[in-house]
Amino acid sequence: MKNFVIKIISFIRRKKWLVGAGVVILVVVVLLLGGNGKELKTATVERGTIVAEVSVTGKVKPAQNIELAFEKGGRILAVYANVGDKVISGQRLVELENGDLKAAVLQAQAALQVQGAKLAEIKKGTRPEEIQIKETELAKAKEDLTGHYNSSVNVSNDSFSKANDAVVKQTDDLFTEDNSSSPRLSFEPSDGQLKNDSQSQRALSGGELIAWANELNQMKSGGSSGSALDFLKKAQTHTDIIRKFLNTLAETLNKTTTLPSATLTAYRTSINTALTNINTAASAISTQIQTITAQQLTVQKVEQELALKLAGSTSEQIQAQEALVKEAEAQLAAALAQLEKTIIRSPFNGMVTKRDAEKGEIISVNSVVMAVIGSGVFEIETSITESDIAKISAGDIAKVTLDAYGPGTVFEAKVIHRDISETMIEGIPTYKTILQFVAEDERILPGLTADADILTDKKENVLFIPTRNITTRDGEKYVKLLIDEKNQETKEVKIETGLRGSDGRTEVVLGLKEGDKIVIE
């Protein structure tokens, strides 16, 4: 073709008048003989790996996240953990005031010990020297109990003196007619209700002191030993009422603006002194009650042990005592269960993320006071559209990047759960899916935005071509195959495809071979 064009050009040069016509003829010849002169762009059929992925975005969240509340209300005794503290499973976090329940547990434990001891003695049998030892032990226990009863007079008398000082002396300047049935505050607080409460409680406290004094006289006159404990419990009630009065009076002073600063300071000092005295008195009474109660249990225990030693035992008695031991065990378990309801413990190893409790605060039932997240690996919660959810299976591996660290930091995760029911998001059905990080990493924090590419399928050593160059017609797939590269000749061939990759490549199952070239334009 090249020689033919040269001959035409030579002929035109000899015939000058044909130059114009020659140009036209030359263009026509080039177009006719040289085709369109544009080389086709192609892609080669290659063999390699095709990967199918589903890309999603979600939020990092802890695998375990729980808010904790009490089953019963009460006043907070102590808070043992703060936000950010690491905790272990079973660790105490918050505790309500539970002195009565602890006492019930002690009683139940003592009762169980008593029953267990009795059973052991029944099974063991008794020697005369053992009986003598036990009788001596009982006499000593009763002697100690009598000593505790006698010392109760001193405890009650001292506590009364402190209480009397707190009410009569320390609050004297704050009232007029304070020994009457209608005491009046010597100043005018800004809160009328607190004024009324202070006055009425002062009158009530005066009456408590009178009753207490009468009871103390009865104790001194030789009341029964058993009544000493009753007197102490009444004294405990007196201190509670007086303490309430002093607390009310302190609150009244806090809301008083009419008194001179020096006077107000002096009054507050007096009330603080009174509260210290009454708290000391209450503590002494409580300790004495516990001491007597414990010693009573000791006497009871020793008496029962001696009775067992003195009496012979039969198989029926052993069985009956075994039943009593089981009953005592059940009572202890019940007491411990009630006590545990006043204690919040961490349900797993983790970290405290919320604290909404302070010592002395009154908490209602089911009010959240602590939140704890697990210390295990974190998860990613995301939503996947219905077009992709069928591709996802539990165990699928994903590569994850976190916005906080950029695309250069990659973490590995796996699918652990997908919902079977849809969730509508902006009118589009989606399915909640959970991915779990494979390894723990201190850089992973709850709330971070995560981008995950979930590997749903992978094929190696397969033929592939660019997806965008496949034509679909009547359900069949076609490509333009270059069959003559020199003359740029092509033909359309039908192919069968397999896996469609996420990177724009599609597997070719039939119709092409490795090295074939297909037209991409």
From TrEMBL:
Alphabetized SUPFAM superfamilies for the sequence: HlyD-like secretion proteins
Alphabetic keyword roster: Coiled coil
Keyword Protein biosynthesis recorded: no
UniProt keyword annotation of Ligase present: no
InterPro entries linked: RND_pump_MFP (IPR006143), UPF0194_transport (IPR050465)
Disordered: annotated span: 175-200
Coiled coil ranges: 311-345
Protein known as: Membrane fusion protein biotin-lipoyl like domain-containing protein
Predominant location category: other
Family: Belongs to the membrane fusion protein (MFP) (TC 8.A.1) family.
GO cellular component labels: cell envelope; membrane
Subcellular location: Cell envelope
